[in-house]
# Entry
Amino acid sequence: MTANMTSGVTASTTSGTTGAPRRDVVVVIGPGAIGRAIARRVGAGRTLLLAGHDRAGTEQAAAELQGDGYDTVVQPTDISDHAAVTALAAKAASLGPVTHLVHAAGVSPTQAGIERLLRVDLLGTALVLDAFAEVIAPGGAGIVVASMAGHRESPYDRDVEQALATTPTDELLALPFLQPERIGTTVHAYALSKRANSLRVQTAAAAWGRRGARVNTVSPGVIITPLALDELSGPRKEWFEHVRQSCAAQRFATPDEVGDVAAFLLGPQASFVTGADLLMDGGVTSALRTGELSL
# Structure
């Protein structure tokens, strides 16, 4: 099989470079454990464009998926950078019809400070939604992986939620309530960012709909990934154990379970679902609401 090379990872010639029919394109931003699980559900027979801030990690994910028979292309991308996100969308469109977007990139409260967390988790998501609203194919669908943390402190004041939902992307980080001294901690910054994700998706659904496409959010609880393991071994590990014992499921989840939910939201069975947020946290938010679990 003839193959081309992108960032050191072999990619299929079905990306259109040899005149063969171009395959549909699935963009996976953040091909970690959850991103790969979703890619496996929707990537067969399509070109997988993997984007991540960590080049080596992204190439490793691509090689793993390629070894299992998926066609992969890699583009290292910092989602907090407008030009990089725009370039990623253009690259995706050059490969073929962009039928699926999976945005699973982010940093946790243990991994980054407030400013970095806001730039990646909040601004980065807004940039991705804007850029791919311009290239998503008719009938396409996108999903943003947010977090149950977006439900933990919400709803915020109406004016705050309206601003998070509708402020132009290039003005987002200038909002007074998003200044680090006002937020206080990375835990609050993370919760605010994840609430913003679902609100931005809700409003972005209108622009995506004008292209005949859909976009939704899934808000997982604790999923056992390397990012989660950082949290579980960090300063809040006792609270996470309390979470496990207090929630209805009495366990944490696997990336494959998120993959199943995402495949539904990306598939034809969810053709009437757009601008929605699906909470899958094993009952943690329920325990918070009833007082069985406290912050």
